[in-house]
Amino acid sequence: MSSLFNQEPGPQPPRDVRSPVEILSLLKNIQQHRDHLRVTFADRPQKFQSFIVQIDNATKTLWIDEMMPRDGDRFATAGEAFRVDAWHEGVHMRWHCPGVQRLMLDGVPTYCAPLPEEMVYHQKRGAFRAAVRRSMELSVHLGHSERNVALDGTLIDISATGCKARFSGDCTHQLPPGDLFERCSLELPESGRLNLSIEIRHAQYDSGSNETQVGLAFRQNQANVQRQIDRFVNYLQREARRLEKEDLF
User: Fold this and answer.
1) Is residue 6 part of a domain?
2) Is residue 232 exposed (0-12), middle (13-18) or buried (19+ Cβ within 10 Å)?
3) Residue 9 placed within a domain
4) Whole-prediction pTM value?
């Protein structure tokens, strides 16, 4: 089954997401970043804008703001079905809404709809790769379930789909591309040690520094682990943007 938590780096074909955990994670990400929703009603050329204002997992409901332009409120109140499109950092997500109910939320008119049972997830560009300062000394452990291989190194950079790490000495013979290491861990600030599976993408030894740099891809990891990784990547991205702004002044 296709999963947004198990992807190759770079642009991807559209994926059908049906896992409630994955759908909830995507919707919460859209809400937290206040990403625009584009609403399109069937057989109507106009496009309308809204936002996610609340998600209630207990009742499986999604609340969106009033629409702009206001004609969209009239169509929604009449019970017309519509399509929702959202974009976040190179990912296009869309889903179908069979109709909404106009209700008041904290004294403000909103529209309540059931959480989508299916979404289309389309990563149109590669995942953002964030550099990790060497002073952070974030450890990476690689352990093989069948071969007697156990290596400890430090993180160089990280993205939502993989990372690069450095290991002391020449380890290339122990790290053939495509090999899956299922007993691995990654140390992240605040999250602590995350247990995960990692595939070797490439390994290159540098005799000058006497270290091996290894490209690693995350494979079939639990949703909570992926969320911790995504949170750390987003933090590094915000820090990088903040430093770039400071350099301008």
Assistant:
1) no
2) buried
3) no
4) 0.50
100, 121 Cβ separation under 8 angstroms: no
Contact 49, 68 (CB under 8 A): yes
**Residues 93, 199 within the same domain:** no
CA distance 43 to 52: 24
Within this chain, do residues 224 and 170 fall inside the same structural domain, yes or no? yes
Chain centroid to Cα 75, Å, comes to 32
**Structure token pair of residue 49:** 């804008």
Domain shared by 162 and 243, yes or no: yes
Nearest-10 Cα torsion for 49, 51, 52, 53: -130
Structure tokens of 31?
A: 């809400």
Both structure tokens of 101: 């109910």
Q: Name the DSSP letter for residue 136.
A: G
Report the distance separating Cα 141 and Cα 192, nearest Å: 13
Scanning the structure block, which residue is given the tokens 């350099």?
A: 247
**pLDDT tens across 86-106, in order?**
987 667 899 999 989 988 888
